[in-house]
Amino acid sequence: MNEQGYSGTQAAKVVGITYRQLDYWARTNLVTPSLASAKGSGSRRLYSYRDLLELRVVRTLLDAGIELPRVRRVFEYVRQHVTDDIGAAHLVISGTDVMLCEGDQLIDVLRKGQGVLNVLPLAGIKEDVDGQLLPLADEAQRAELAASARRIG
Question: pTM higher than 0.85, yes or no?
Answer without folding.
Answer: no
